[in-house]
């Protein structure tokens, strides 16, 4: 018969001779709270009075580590450097009053509310967020004026596309309007982002580092197919100009210049920019009855309030309400609008212009244009003109790529003048003078 040892008694804890166990629940002892505002967690210890250059370098490095956008880093660096040049005291003694005095200096000097907001954000990020100085607590971001966006009509968008002097510029403006993308998003578009089968465009790394999809317009596909033959569908949709730039995209500033040139040639007086194409895209969708939440998704807006701004400029509501001024002048035709005349243009050399007397079935007339070069004229074919109503002419100019053979015979100075908007303004004025009187 085997014997079993008795189980050992459970060990008990005693405190002052009394049994004790660790408290549980809300009475349980907690670990000490870690203070993340302690000076040892600061990116730069301002108590050591570091030089301004060290603070700027440490701030830029920290922003890169936290994946701030390159444009944000550039703007914050410029604002921080400007403030450090103004402030002459110790960095750890910067007070809220110093920040207020500097911002007041900017406002007095005529700085915009956006510039003051960026400056305050840069100082708050550097001194409060990175250096734990708490010198901007309580300072409120300046109010911004609530301006309505510039919206073009569909006819004006068509005029803008028709006035572009190169096929690339026509495609640029078409993509801006057809997709509603931001100018930076259009510049970074790759051929791999286009899904022709599903009729979608993938926007990768948009504002806020968010991806989204937008529609690919049916009438945009033939234009893209023409470019596909030259690029073989590789790299960026709009590569940078010049040689050895296959891995670089077109800069947003170049796109802005292309839109500005087309706007000047079209005679549109509105201050249209590439972003105006995005405004027009959203407004026209609202006027067509598209759900505003779907538009919000296409535009990549975080807040619906941002998208609702376009409902204020849409004509779906105001079109049913007539102005009392119109009722007063009911059934009275207004004066015909004259062709807008800009400032005097510089000389572009000698041109020979002949306008066809008889229009075609569509009402367009062919225009013969010859540039004087020595003893003969070099023709630039493909120009047509029509007069939709008295006082207005619509000039159709082919892409500049179709003139490459003719332009190669001109000098560099002559080619440079033809590339300027002033050349087309002079051309439009001279053609208007040669239009037959019976069509007016």
From TrEMBL:
Residues 338-348 have a biased composition (Polar residues). The keyword Protein biosynthesis does not apply. The keyword DNA-binding applies. GO terms for molecular function: DNA binding. Keywords: DNA integration, DNA recombination, DNA-binding. GO terms for biological process: DNA integration; DNA recombination. It holds the Pfam family Phage_integrase. Residues 147-323 form the Tyr recombinase domain. InterPro entries: CB, DNA_brk_join_enz, Integrase-like_cat_sf, Integrase_catalytic, Integrase_recombinase_N, Integrase_SAM-like_N, Tyrosine_recombinase_XerCD. SUPFAM superfamilies: DNA breaking-rejoining enzymes. Residues 58-131 form the Core-binding (CB) domain. Residues 1-31, 322-348 are annotated as: Disordered. It comes from the Bacteria. PANTHER family: PHAGE INTEGRASE-RELATED (PTHR30349), PROPHAGE INTEGRASE INTD-RELATED (PTHR30349:SF64). Belongs to the 'phage' integrase family. This is Tyrosine recombinase XerD.
């Amino acid at each position: 018969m085997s014997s079993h040892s008795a189980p050992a008694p459970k060990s008990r804890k005693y405190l002052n001779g009394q049994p004790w166990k660790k408290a549980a629940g809300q009475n349980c002892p907690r670990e000490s709270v870690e203070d993340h505002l302690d000076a040892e967690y600061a990116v730069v210890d301002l108590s050591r009075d570091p030089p301004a250059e060290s603070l700027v370098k440490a701030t830029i490095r920290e922003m890169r580590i936290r994946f701030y956008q390159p444009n944000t880093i550039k703007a914050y660096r410029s604002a921080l450097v400007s403030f450090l040049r103004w402030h002459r005291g110790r960095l750890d003694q910067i007070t809220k009053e110093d920040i207020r005095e500097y911002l007041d200096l900017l406002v007095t000097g005529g700085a915009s509310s956006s510039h003051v907001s960026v400056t305050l954000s840069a100082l708050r990020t550097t001194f409060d967020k990175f250096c734990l100085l708490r010198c901007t607590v309580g300072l409120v971001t300046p109010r911004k004026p609530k301006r309505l966006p510039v919206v073009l009509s569909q006819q004006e968008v068509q005029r803008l596309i028709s006035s572009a002097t190169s096929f690339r510029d026509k495609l640029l403006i078409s993509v801006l309007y057809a997709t509603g993308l931001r100018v930076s998003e259009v510049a970074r578009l790759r051929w791999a982002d286009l899904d022709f089968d599903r009729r979608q465009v993938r926007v990768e790394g948009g504002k806020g580092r968010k991806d989204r999809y937008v529609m690919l317009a049916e009438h945009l596909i033939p234009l893209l197919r023409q470019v596909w033959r030259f690029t073989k569908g590789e790299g960026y949709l709009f590569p940078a100009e010049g040689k050895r730039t296959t891995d670089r995209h077109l800069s947003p500033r170049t796109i802005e210049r292309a839109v500005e040139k087309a706007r000047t040639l079209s005679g549109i007086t509105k201050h249209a920019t590439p972003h105006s194409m995005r405004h027009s895209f959203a407004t026209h969708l609202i006027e067509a009855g598209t759900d505003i939440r779907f538009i919000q998704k296409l535009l990549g807006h975080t807040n619906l309030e941002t998208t609702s701004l376009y409902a204020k400029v849409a004509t779906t509501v105001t079109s049913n309400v007539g102005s009392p001024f119109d009722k007063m002048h009911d059934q009275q035709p207004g004066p015909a609008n004259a062709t807008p005349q800009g400032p005097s243009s510089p000389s572009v050399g000698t041109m020979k212009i002949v306008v066809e007397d008889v229009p075609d079935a569509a009402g367009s007339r062919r225009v013969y244009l010859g540039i004087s070069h020595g003893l003969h004229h070099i023709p630039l074919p493909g120009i047509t003109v029509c007069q939709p109503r008295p006082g207005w002419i619509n000039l159709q100019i082919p892409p500049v790529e179709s003139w490459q053979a003719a332009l190669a015979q001109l000098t560099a100075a002559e080619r440079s003048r033809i590339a300027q908007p002033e050349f087309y303004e002079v051309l439009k004025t001279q053609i208007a003078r040669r239009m037959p009187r019976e069509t007016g």
